[in-house]
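Request: Have a read of the protein record below and say how the chain folds.
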Amino acid sequence: MHTSIFTATLPKTLIYGCFVALSVIPAFAATWNPDPSLGNPDQHRRLYEIARHYCEVNFDPDANLVGNSSPNPPNKKHHGTGASAAYAYGLLLTGDPADDALAQKILRRVVTCQDTKPDSPTYGAFNWSVEDKPQDLNSAAFVGLTLVGILDIDRQRPCLDPDLRSQVENAVRLAVQEVMRRNINQGYTNIALISVALASAGEKFLAVPGAGAWAQAKLDALNALADDGEFAEYLSPTYTGVAISGAYAARKFAFSPAFAASADTTINHLWKQVAAAYHAPTFQLGGPYCRAYGDNMLQYTSDLKYWLYLGLGGNYPLSETDTAHDWGKLSLFGLATTPISPRPEFKQPPIPWRQWTAVGSPGGNADADNTLVRHFSQYKDGNFTLGTVTTQDEWKQKRNLVAFWRNEGSSPDGANVGFCQDESNEAIQEGDPGFPGEKVHFYSQQVKDAALVALVAPKDVPLKSVSTLVFDEGAVMDGKAGSSPFVIKDGSITTYLYPVSNASVQFGTQLNTYPMPNGQDFFKVRPVSYRISRVTRPWSLADVAGTSHVLAYLIVFRPSDKPAPVVSDIVLKPDGTGASAKVDGTDLSISF
């Protein structure tokens, strides 16, 4: 499905004013007026109103909690602990007595959802929903940091009953102790940063023993790991926003000038990487992504797009029709109180071609390999961008090849976003539920708008699965089964797909609707009406090369009004050591 963007021929002030005007947000009993020192008060207020509207719609007055229906399993009601804590924070911002009273009712429920048993493995963590039990240790950092914001309000304007204040302080203290005990690996960037912010606040507000030293050491280790490259958990449209939120919270709750300076270093580094990857014509973050929950930020609630809204001075469209979920919408209360003016990084000209690295293994394992180096390539040419990772496993949320382009004049609003992503990892989950995608590896070499790719299964093979390239609904498949190249036309860009194989290969196509079978979209947040086109090749047709099974392809993107590429010398080495091809006289090769 295409995503509409208002025509670029209109003045930007009119374009973005239209998006605001189209959103229907009700009047509230109390309003929140941003502190003038925040800058851009209308934009900050706008984010607050989006979050509050979401809470008003989803609030359950019988439970005094924010709740929604989960798609998995369908229609089961969940009352979110983190969402409810965030709503309480938003209510307390107004200073209205009625809002204060409701916030306290909510908080009395939230604090009961923490594991307070010292001998429990989840001691200090929270239920993600009231109906469940504490399981995910990340909840201590997320919910704990929201409760810190509430303590901050209470210290500036006492608004909590004494007994509730004591309960919230104790909940924060236990959450701080949990994140310190867990000692998350700094490669898990988003959780590491919100844990750092929580520990910093624990030092500043509650003098939790060792919290300040832990926060400083963890933040220094994280900054050293990134150095001048990318954080281990790189370019995630969802989790980069969480990471920025954690960095700003660490700065807000800094307990010393040295710690504040370290937080500033983190903030500036994150904005630098986001601005370098941002593709303004499509409003997307260029790939590849360490983790992804959706294809297109205009269609789902990625945390990052709201930071972009402020960092770009409001020049980012915010739609009330995107797919909403708690962890995106409810973060806006904190974002609304964060002092962000237009960032200077976005005033730099786009970088047409860049290659850079990330060091460290993402994820929550304290023993993760922080010597792992991943290499990335990213190309921008006007309305088109393509990014790839050189080597990566096929864990379910990773996006190892990501392309976006802008199509003009193909909708009433004047423009659409086209895309192509390799989602073979999620196809593995669809075809072979439970098969570890980490057993399959992705290899590529990108030269501008062309990429040579191989998916390699050294031992176990997901024989019921397919290799999958996902396109938007507007893509038209022009190739026939067994043809080479397989041609996919989509507005301004035509994609040429060549099999790299020692045998005859057939590509197939599918048009899918949400939800997709066997949980493929469990980690993908898409509107119910969302439709995508898929180009697939089954693992049952994989080449046996050496001791491995290989699915390899060459993909080239070209403007639709330009000639097709000149491609030759496509070879898959029989010994399983690599593949090669030539595009317009340029050699591409990969080794695996």
Remarks:
- Residues 184-292+349-382 form one domain.
- The chain has a mean pLDDT of 88.
